[in-house]
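Two entries, shown back to back:
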Amino acid sequence: MKSEQELLQAINGGNRAAMRELYDRYSGYAMAVGLRYMADADAVKDVLQDSFVKIFTGIGAFEYRGEGSLKAWVLRVVANESLTQLRRYHHFAVTDEMPDMPDENVPDTEDVPLSVIMQMIERLPVGYRTVFNLFVFEQKSHKEIALLLGIKENSSASQYFRAKNMLAKMIEEYKITTKI
């Protein structure tokens, strides 16, 4: 397996096999990122197709910064393309309401499999899921999220806290039904 730098050099040299290797190496991770934002697998496939077109047409401008930077860039392109698709096809609820104060008792997720938690995140309403992913996984501030989505900062905070509370309820229900 080539290092990222070797792979990048081969792609920039026009090597189609290297392009395929990049796709094979990172498409699973890219799919996981897409699924965090889009609940529909067909929509994620469209996002991945558009993302890899952008990746391969823009890879010449990519600035290599060490092992892992190529993967991070690929996943950032997928996240951005997911957001573009969400903005294009979904309208986010805009509210000036300040969010309710979050519950202090955060459920223990230690015994809940990660795959189950990811499925719960997928079940969140689009706006909740998008803001939750941006805040938790992409580590964006509510100000940055508001700019990305064209909503108010208070709306971002509200969506996040509502998503967090909804997830807490789902986790508690899961623990009750599975008797954890």
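entry 2 starts here
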Amino acid sequence: MKIDVIGDVHGCFKELLELLHTLGYEQQENSYIHPDGRIPVFLGDITDRGPDSLQVVQLVYEMVVVHNKAHYVPGNHCNKLYRFFLGNNVQQRYGLETTVAEYKALSDAQQDSICNQFITLYEQAPLYLNLPEVNAVIAHAGIKESYIGRTDKKVKTFVLYGDITGKVQADGRPIRGDWAKEYTGNKWVVYGHTPVKEARFINKTVNIDTGCVFGNALSAFRLPEEQLVSVPSSQPLVEEKFSHFE
């Protein structure tokens, strides 16, 4: 088994296609297939903030659900969009408003189609992926070693939102603990969620959310090769959105 874990796309459809091409994928019908049988794994937060969230949803749905040639795990933005599509009263901010605006511009039939596609994609998705074939766990915001194998509410919150402390920074962003510093497992944990200028390798973890929607890059981590592949973003750079670690 060989996989390409793709970081937070956030509606950056153009960069996603460029990354797939760079990784060697070829378009077949409405999907992308690798001639060597590699499997793409989408790391959650495929929508919101970027210009083409619904096109990303359609492509990921085709690759994961229709053709069964890719994997997907949800992120916090995915969870929020799922609840919106279920009809829940969700606050339309932090990027959800951009996806909702795209959605509302569609015809009723198109709205029904994209809503059903995303609900199906989300409901079929595992909370995180444990892939012993490549000695890796794929989780949107990461996962503590002691949580691997569990799917209870505490683990769900961690996997979607990260190591939240309940405290917030002056700009309203949550203050998170640095779980990766404490990680001592021998499996790779590949995650995203927190934008960083360069992929962050610490212990056997790697954060590959290189902030494409904030103007930096879209990245993939290849296993078992342990190789990082990135393409530059065409979005304007928003420097203050990137986290800096000790």
